[in-house]
Amino acid sequence: MFEYAPAPESRDIVDLKSSYGLFINGEFVDGSGKPFKTVNPATEEKLAEVATASSDDVDRAVQAARKAFGAWSGLPGAERAKYLFRIARIIQERARELAVLESLDNGKPIRESRDVDLPLVAAHFFYYAGWADKLGYAGFGRRTTDGHSGANPRPLGVAGQVIPWNFPLLMLAWKIAPALACGNTVVLKPAETTPLTALLFAEICQQADLPPGVVNIVTGAGETGAAVVAHPDVNKVAFTGSTEVGRVIARTVAGTDKKLTLELGGKAANIVFEDAALDQAVEGIVNGIFFNQGHVCCAGSRLLVQESIQDELLTALKRRLSTLRLGDPLDKNTDIGAINSAEQLAKIRQLSDLGESEGAERWSPACELPAKGYWFPPTLFTGVAQSHAIAREEIFGPVLSVLTFRTPAEAVEKANNTPYGLSAGIWTEKGSRILWMADKLRAGVVWANTFNRFDPTSPFGGYKESGYGREGGLLGLEAYLDV
Ligand code: NDP
After folding, report:
1. Long-range CB contacts (< 8 A, 24+ apart) of 30-37?
2. Is the beta carbon of 422 within 6 A of some atom in ligand 1?
3. Residue 394 near ligand 1, beta carbon < 6 Å
4. What residues does 476 pair with on adjacent strands?
5. Which of 70, 79, 210, 369 might form a disulfide with 75, Cβ 3.0–4.6 angstroms?
6. pLDDT recorded at residue 143
7. What is the distance between the alpha carbons of residues 340 and 396, in angstroms, rounded to a whole number?
8. Of ligand 1's atoms, which has the minimum distance to the CA of residue 297?
9. Using one digit for the tens of pLDDT, what is the confidence trace for 321-370?
10. Catalytic-role residue among 263, 465, 471, 478
11. Residue 461, CB half-sphere, CA atoms under 13 Å: how many?
């Protein structure tokens, strides 16, 4: 492996404040709950104190959103689009600042926040800005003889949105951009461990002169999220996170007329056939499970490899894993950053230990972990049986479970043998096999000879316990419209 001198991105570009308030009705205000601290998971250094929104604060935010809804939804789509385009451009202008802040608060490598998250965040705002004045032509509702929709579909009202910590700003973009384009107003709760880029986004809303109340950001823990979801004046709930909390939210919303989309966990199969281009597949496997420390709901956490190439593939994969650089997330050479929190690290450790005690064989490359912060080495398990917890449960860390198969039919059966159904990957030279497999895999997204590719035009979402509803593309608009 080449040795590289450290190439740290400067954090001077970020103006970190010692404390942050809630963003309600276009202003930063105090929260009435007990403030919490957010830390840099790579160093455990406290970054800032952040306000906690009580249920009264959430109520104020919902009222502000309700008040703003009339004027915002009444604007011509082209006017709403101007704000969204403006926000998209400011995000591009301030991309470096946002990327550094994201890496500081989340622990993800700057290469990923800079080259993946931020471009996608801007792309989402550009994409949905483009739709804001074309909703009547998006194919929803009754069609007239000239092929146009009979009436403009209507927005739903106030959207309550709760997002996780793995892609803090990107999940915000997936939620806020389509909601606003359709004429809704929002109250968004970021995850407790990663609130800072959402609060910088609030500043961007001010900079873009977005009318007060159209976007409200309430920080806090799970109770704040629960208050957003349960608020009687919220018309639409959008949640990304664990299946467990998704269930709680579905119960809260049941019996109300709130519209709900849930984007939950996954345990995706990444399936490699013997005719696949192996070096390419190795890159795809690495990207599938070690991108963002494996904190990815659609991560390819189960590698299904055809038995005939198991040894060859694992040798190549181990060689490749030995070249991954783990360390300072702000270093531009870093491939694997920090685990987002002590709790998540404990969960990864517990499930990995369970894998070993259930009889799977654990392997990690030689890799020195920093003394401070939350770290876990890239890990793979061989000899994994379908009954093992590491083959069934979402680990949400840099841990790959390797299983084998002999025939395509067996691959399909094993891939679908999961309560989840968010994504899958297929590696083969044969186009006909890709189509045959894609047709049979119960997964919302199926990648062929690639993995973890995202695009705002492409809908994303799951089957079974991975949730319901779609985000992205035209279907992502539908989730925010009364059609
Ligand atoms: P959660 O599902 O608990 O968190 C997601 C968001 O929901 C956070 O903003 C959280 O707030 C909030 N929340 C928590 N409880 C409630 C509630 N009762 N009502 C409304 N909102 C609530 O995920 P965790 O962060 O606890 O992670 C646990 C596990 O979930 C991970 O180990 C991973 O397996 C999985 N996960 C899956 C994700 C995915 O995209 N599929 C994303 C994140 C996690 P707060 O941050 O304060 O807890």
Report:
1. 31/57, 31/218, 31/219, 31/220, 32/56, 32/57, 33/57, 33/220, 33/224, 36/192, 36/220, 36/221
2. no
3. yes
4. none
5. 79
6. 55
7. 10
8. 41
9. 999 999 999 999 999 999 999 999 999 999 999 999 999 999 999 999 99
10. 263
11. 19
Q: Quick check: helix, strand or coil at residue 349?
A: helix
Whole-number Å distance, alpha carbon 189 to ligand 1 midpoint, is 11
Q: Does any ligand 1 atom lie closer than 6 A to the CB of residue 461?
A: no
Catalytic-residue membership of 297: yes
Instruction: Assess whether 393 carries a catalytic annotation.
Output: no
Q: pTM for this structure?
A: 0.96
Q: Is the per-residue pLDDT at 477 higher than 60?
A: yes
Structure tokens at 379: 């890990």
The amino acid occupying position 454 is: F
Phi, psi of 235 (to 5 degrees): -100, -20
Q: Are strands 399-405 and 379-382 parallel, antiparallel or unpaired?
A: parallel
Query: What tens digit of pLDDT does each residue of 78-98 get?
Result: 999 999 999 999 999 999 999
Residue 164 CB–ligand 1 contact under 6 Å: yes
Distance from CA of residue 425 to its chain's centroid?
18
pLDDT band at 140 (very low <50, low <70, confident <90, very high): confident
